[in-house]
Amino acid sequence: MFQGIGTWEILLIFLVALLLFGAKRIPEIAKGLGKGITEFKRAVKDVKDEIETNVDDAPPSPPPPPANTAPQSQEPEKKVES
What we know:
The structure is a single chain. The chain has two helices and no strands. By secondary structure, it is an all-alpha fold. The protein has a domain at about 20-60.
């Protein structure tokens, strides 16, 4: 995840965050960030579940109409009386 970032870079980022936010605010920020990530993952899971449910519940497409092999006459049949 942190390819290319060494120990000194991580330490520097931590020190800058400590100076900007203070020692008391960092745990609060981390807790809020954790809750945000958890809520985002839950929302993604809910959307995936809803999509899968809608795909499973979708009615199958109607079959294609049969192909006519012999042309039918447009004139009605005439009955012959004897």
